[in-house]
Amino acid sequence: MKRAIQVLTALIIILFANVSNVKSQEITDNPSISDHRLKLVFNEGTRTYELYDAADGLILSAGMISYTNGHDSISTNDPDISRTIQNATENKLVIGFNNSFKVVAELQGDSVLIFKAVGEFPGEFFMNARAPLSDRTMAAMLINEKTNDRQTLIQSLGKTEIPGQKSIFDPLKDLAVQIESEGKAAWDYFYQWQLKASAKSGENLCTIKLIRHYYRDDLGITYYAPVKKRSYFEKAPALAMTWVGIEGKYNRPDFAQRKEWLYPNIDWVSKNLLPYAGEMVFQLDDNYPIDDPKYMRDISDYIRSKGLIPGIWMAPFGVAPYKETETHPEWFIHKADGSPVITFSGLSYDDVRHYNSAVLNVNNKEAVEHWFAGFVRQISETWNYDYFKIDGIPAVLSAYKRSVDGEGVDGVRRGLHIIRSVLGPDKYINTSWGIPLEGIDIVNGSRVGGDTEQEDQVISRVAVKQNYLNNVAWYSDPDGAANMYASTVSRARLNFLGRSLLGQPYVTDDHWTKVPDKILEVWQKTLPTIESIPANLYKINDPEKYDHFDLKITKPWGSWDVVALNNYAKEDLRKSLDLRRLALTSDQVYVFDFWNQKYLGKFSRNDTIERNMKAIDAHCFNIVPVRTDRPVLLSTNRHYTQGGIDIEKMSYTKKGSEWIIQGESGKLICQKPYEMTFQTNGYTLEMASASDGITTILSRNGIAKVRIIPEQTKTVWLLSFKPDDNTSVSFGSELVQTAPGKTVEIPLNLIHGPAHWKIRKNDRNIKIKENHRESSFSFEINPDVLEPEQTWSTWLTLESKDANVYTDSLLVEVQGPDRINIAPEAKASASSIYFWGDQNGYGRPDGVNDGLSFKAWEAAEGDTSGWVELIWKKPVTFQRIVIDEWMESGGHIRSWYLEAGYKTCQYTPRRQTKPVIVYKPDKEFMNIISEGKTIGRNFVIILDKPVTANALRLYINKASKRPGIWEIEVNPADQTK
């Protein structure tokens, strides 16, 4: 009933707003003031304040000011209260109401409006108004609010306000509205954005500041325009991109984009990712057979036949063969000396210059017809591709600026407009490398950094930094998180949870048929992409500090926060989920661990939750406001939004003492178990049914779980919860993570009277102390049982002889101490290098000691022996070495030895030519310290005794094919365990 009254009230308010617009035009004697382009009107018809901008129209409407005098509420829009115009100058309007109070409204220039209420009574005045801006108006934190953002990225799915929110932003108008008060002021959302403020008599009740052209002027985005929603690209796309993962990538001039490699991977993506993504692009990157239109059309047809969208890479400004510069020099841009400007053109164009070409002049009609537009048209219409990655735009911008006949930025923009006119409005254009903001109003999105295959992760360095542009002006593409098949689950969680939660393009770049199930599961649970809107509307120059992402989700049946806690470091860390850094709406919250599918308990909004995090990792939590009067949904397992994309309808109905919860869930996967988890709050899950699939109740009380195995992608379900009057006891959580040497206290939930209980353990290395008076217990872990970099775990069991036991199992996890890896401190070198891999971040010697398992040293093509060496600036002592062999196509190493000793360490500083010697031993020598046959993944060598040396060399005597090493880890002598 309350909700129905709210809806009816909103409709009446909207109706009044429409009427007020008409009456403002009809009634000419409405008291008003104006200053430049702003006009404030007190509408006599609705007795409310309205603020107009000459260019942007109605900014605020239904403005009312009130106070409560005893039991009576007096408001400016009460028709029984008389009003008197006491002053109406050019920039100040003073109206007295019922000889009780007066409202002073003052315009300051063309952007600031101040309201002040004055009356002789104790208490506060209240102001309410609406902002009838566009439907895309969003919650915002502006650049002048950055110091208060708690170094948390806040996103919204649905119209969601932020507690204490001071600003809103309309991307269609590039207009921000910011409010302040000497009392309190904030925005909330109910069908429209609502301004709410309060202050004492005589204080500034509300200062309203209009910030026009916020992105264009304040943030310096010269060509700002709102992001365009096109056809099936209504949100950030999901892509499978063939750049790093493709076999044969560097085998020029032989083209790598061949059917024999592509088709099995297209099949895999269609089978394993498309059902989760809903729609997905399969994008061919550089190095395809440009001179075979039929071959390229066959590939696009095959992509479409698998339900995917064909995408392709191109560099159209450099498409013409270099020989054309002699026959048609006028088709190109030139330097002052008349020579053509040369820049990046990629690998696809079979020309002697390969990677660089002369740059076409799009101001020349013939150049456009013969090559530039003609090439784009061929790919779009003949080859039939829909997604276009336009590479090298920053390089092209630099070339046009250097030229004497290209017309600089205007020339490049003309070229992008030509591409758009050829492709039409619905096909997707993604510019690439750097941040080519000069095309932001023409294209759909852009890469916002360099090739991230060369980085350990892309979320903080690229995605966080440029997130303010994403889904506001364009889609900010952080590039692919490459070669996940050779990486860790933790790295997959960081990169793909981050991409999806921030609503950015979701780019996989892999040898997909090699991707293990654990990585695939991360992808499946972070697809589809969502319409996530940023609140931090400014560039972030210290992204590593923003390790909390808070996605605020609002649905008709409730609101909750999905939070990512990120570890950007290359080492395991003990980190805290700090609830104080989140803009929570409830004093107490339930917290659920999504990856582990475990309930962590009930917490205060001021609590912190300790976590054991792997290197380059992200944990995911659902944070739900506490309610104790009925069962509460804690999580669903389909998608990390935990009800945000899968639950389409949901309702709670009280029938006598029973709660009926029913809903509709979509975007499900046939035959994949779909689970919902509830906090029962003294109720029992009595019955569960679904319109489609097999339904099973996994647990009924405390933390109740129901599983549906659907036959279709949608199901309608119904749950019945009945009161539970039995005495019960349960753990207050399902999972606790702690650190070595720390005493942890765990509360128990005891309902309906006292009960006897006992904690049972299955491992003698945990010591338990029960506190029956406080209904809690504590435990300590024997530190001797902990292995370095390993997680030790045990289960505790709760028993009672006179009460029902519900959540009866608690998983305890303790992270062992960190093991120090001294290999990254050394300088790496090798006998040979796979050249093209070296140029693009792969194959280099330092791939073996960067702390990352997805970048490797690779020997040169044809080599079946070789070495890779680490040299430190001073001697180190070690006893444990871990070697991770490059396993691109299986292990090739057949014989090896490891030697250590002393060598001169030197390096050449930047901008210098002479090397600097940092260590020179009295005598240089190397001794063999270990040897063997095969290596494989994570091969551990523990030496008989510690070795002190400043040089360590792995020599490969024999390999069946070109050998390589993903990683060498070296541990100090005291860390052999």
Describe this structure in words.
Strand 1 and strand 2 form a beta hairpin. The model is unreliable at 1-27 and 249-253 (pLDDT under 50). The strands form twelve sheets. A nine-stranded parallel β-sheet has the order 26-25-24-23-20-19-18-28-27. The protein has 977 residues and is mainly beta. It is built from 13 helices and 62 strands. Helix 8 (393-402) packs across helix 9. 46% of the residues are buried.
What topology does this entry show?
Layout: H1 2-26, E1 32-35, E2 38-43, E3 48-53, E4 57-69, E5 72-75, E6 83-88, E7 92-97, E8 101-108, E9 112-118, E10 124-131, E11 138-140, E12 152-157, E13 167-170, E14 175-180, E15 184-190, E16 192-200, E17 204-212, H2 214-218, E18 238-242, H3 259-272, H4 274-277, E19 281-284, H5 293-305, E20 309-314, H6 324-327, E21 342-344, E22 356-358, H7 365-382, E23 387-390, H8 393-402, H9 408-423, E24 428-431, E25 445-447, H10 459-464, E26 475-477, E27 481-482, H11 489-501, E28 506-509, H12 517-525, E29 533-534, E30 548-555, E31 558-567, E32 573-578, E33 588-593, E34 598-604, E35 608-613, E36 617-625, E37 632-636, E38 647-655, E39 658-665, E40 674-679, E41 683-690, E42 694-699, E43 703-709, E44 715-723, E45 728-731, E46 735-738, E47 744-751, E48 758-761, E49 766-771, E50 776-781, E51 791-799, E52 804-805, E53 809-815, E54 827-830, H13 835-839, E55 857-858, E56 866-885, E57 893-902, E58 905-907, E59 916-919, E60 925-932, E61 939-959, E62 964-972
Parallel strand pairs: 12-30, 18-19, 18-28, 19-20, 20-23, 23-24, 24-25, 25-26, 27-28, 45-52, 46-53
Antiparallel strand pairs: 1-2, 2-3, 3-4, 4-5, 4-10, 6-7, 7-8, 8-9, 9-17, 10-16, 11-13, 12-29, 13-14, 14-17, 15-16, 21-22, 30-31, 31-36, 32-35, 33-34, 33-36, 37-40, 38-39, 39-44, 40-43, 41-44, 42-43, 45-47, 47-50, 48-51, 49-50, 51-53, 54-56, 55-62, 56-61, 56-62, 57-60, 57-61, 58-59
